[in-house]
Amino acid sequence: MAVEHPVYTAQHLSWQVQDKLILNDLSFAIGQGEFVGLIGPNGAGKSSLLRCLYRKITPTRGTLAFQQKSLAEYSRQQLAQKVAVVLQEPPNQFELTVFDVIAMGLTPHKGLLDFDTSDDRDRVVKACKQVDLNDKLEQNFNSLSGGEKQRAMIARAIVQQPQVLLMDEPTNHLDIRHQLEVLHLARSLKITVIVSIHDLNLAAAFCDRLILLDHGRIVADGDKQQVLCEKHIADVFGVSSAVDSHPFHDGQRITFNLAKPS
Ligand SMILES: Nc1ncnc2c1ncn2[C@@H]1O[C@H](COP(=O)(O)OP(=O)(O)OP(=O)(O)O)[C@@H](O)[C@H]1O
């Protein structure tokens, strides 16, 4: 897809571990402000692609540019000022309160000797409210439930004030209300969001553009209406479905045939 102001541009990006090609010749550009969903079956390469985008791993072939400059040329701090990441499994944060963990999002914008200001505190408290954790600020992070931890990590990303938000299965641990709240919140930030997501109905509701991966390759990339069709779902997931328009939003509704896949 041609985009006007590319944030990421990948050309022939591949990532190989030993003799296994995990990402295979991916080319795409993602524009400023796009809300892009990465979809595909288990092992398709969604997390690996996200890892390339936040430079946890380095492509073994091809090029990857961030804001028109090779991603490899950014310092760790420069990247952290622009890109926030919410991972599937929140890290262990021994002895830290929820407030402390969320306040870590301030770090990329601070010098070594900068102290937290009252504005900083306000930002942390506001983000905490946005994810519905305002009564948990002083609680030990490790004692939160899985879903609460996930929401705290999203608050930390908001505090970071990034230009790009990368999220790997952010709705995994969340009940339906909090799934919706998190995705609405991500959309309301009006920044570039790239999110891997298994729930195809949520992908259809929230993403504008979808990249469908299978076996490390891009099978389809484009408007959600083109990508989420019965044929692609059958080809890639091996499940038959009926796709029609959703009664509550402009995306599709996918109804799966729940019979055992043949
Ligand atoms: N460091 C690694 N070494 C070897 N194989 C790896 C490594 N990282 C990922 N893989 C393999 O690459 C493939 C893609 O993994 P990845 O986690 O990117 O898939 P995914 O689409 O995010 O899957 P899921 O939906 O299950 O989270 C998998 O087969 C995985 O086992």
If helices are DSSP runs of H or I spanning 4 or more residues, what is the number of helices? 9
Order of helices and strands: EEEHEEHEHHHEHEHEEHHEE
Rg for CA atoms? 19 Å
* Main β sheet profile: 6 strands, mixed
How many β-strands, per DSSP?
12
Indicate the proportion of strand residues: 25-35%
Gross morphology is globular
Report how far the terminal alpha carbons are from each other: 34 Å
Concise overview:
This protein has 9 helices and 12 strands. It has helices spanning 46-53, 76-82, 98-103, 118-130, 146-159, 176-188, 200-206, 224-227, 230-237, and strands at 6-17, 20-31, 35-39, 61-66, 69-70, 83-86, 164-168, 192-196, 209-214, 217-223, 241-245, 252-256. The radius of gyration is 19 Å and the shape is globular.
Question: What tags apply to this protein structure?
Answer:
single chain; 262 residues; alpha/beta; six-stranded mixed beta sheet; four-stranded antiparallel beta sheet; binds adenosine-5'-triphosphate; ATP-binding; ATP hydrolysis activity; P-loop_NTPase; ATP binding; ABC_transporter-like_CS
